[in-house]
Amino acid sequence: MNWKDKETYLEIYPPHEFNFEECLLYLGRSKLEETHQIKEGFLYKLIKVDHSFILCRIGWGNCSLNVEFPISTPSIDLRQKVAAYIWEWFDFDQELKGFYQLAAQDQVLQTLVHKYYGLRIVCIPDLFEALVWAIMGQQINLTFAYTLKKRFTEKYGESLNFEGDTFWLFPTFEKIASLHIDDLRELQFTQRKAEYIIDIAKAMDKGNLNKERLLQRKDYQLIRKSLMMIRGIGPWTADYVLMRCLHYADAFPIADVGLHNALKKQLELERKPTIEEIEAFAKHWKGWKAYATFYLWRSLYDEDL
Q1: What is the C-alpha separation between 283 and 92, in angstroms, rounded?
Q2: Distances in Å between the alpha carbon of 285 and those of 101, 108, 252?
Q3: What is the pTM of this model?
Q4: The predicted structure's pLDDT at residue 303
């Protein structure tokens, strides 16, 4: 991790392949998002570290992310944990040179990597948030998924007010473990999704499921199988979590509708490609399927910008 503690703020030096503007575009793709805010080119993120609420104002300048603390400066120990969170959030441990070399020779990715150079997978460091967000997104459109997330966050998340704005934390598994199915049904969750989310919260609350234990397996297929043993988690959800929370660059949510639409658009097809056709393309993306997917997703919201 490459950063400097400037006492009242942090300077984080990302790898060369990083474009803050591109990552902001991804983070700003829904007006319903509650767990961060973008204002005048700055990214505001509320983080809870060791029971302390820390509001971060993240900007870009002199080849570094500059992290300021508009409310009060946390202790050096907390500042270090904030730096580690942001480092993980933008997947800075991932060395992207190999991806760009591979993509430069690929008919599907060639244009995308040139266009969106420096875009990184924007991760979800918290396992509970990653699992719940993936379950929310199952078989519904993105706008309704964000509507559910907003309701869920405002009802069960903690928040902090600063200069007229409210900054939210995603609800904790401890909080959700104590809920009844009907509590989530009131927010328009389906019966099944409500059950899955509360079950996962209970498993995490009992210590039966956590990120560290999953990562200790150090094997993509083993972790994928462990996730899929959890009720409500199928192949798509498992790969989504492996990609956005557990940093597996070869995770591949092959059944993803957005991926299919993006390939259809890039290849100028009359119809969506079949799973077999996608598998044939993906053979060239070995080691980098998650990044290929993320760049293809990015191509979908060009027309919305």
Answers
A1: 25
A2: 11, 10, 10
A3: 0.94
A4: 57
φ, ψ for residue 260, nearest 5 deg? -65, -45
Residues of the chain with pLDDT under 70: 303-305
C-alpha span between 276 and 272 (Å, rounded) = 12
In angstroms, the CA 114 to CA 255 distance is 26
Q: Which residues contact 48 (CB under 8 A, 6 or more apart)?
A: 54, 158, 169
pLDDT in tens, 7-31: 999 999 999 999 999 999 999 989 9
Residue type, 267: L
Q: How far apart are CA 15 and CA 32, in angstroms?
A: 30
Q: Helix 257-266 and helix 275-282: axis angle, to 10°?
A: 70
The yes-or-no answer on residue 256 being catalytic is: yes
Pair 82, 30: CB distance under 8 Å: no
pLDDT of the residue at 139? 80
Locate 162 and state its tokens: 């600063």
Q: Select which of 50, 219, 256, 304 is catalytic.
A: 256
Token match 């959700």: residue?
176
pLDDT at position 304: 52
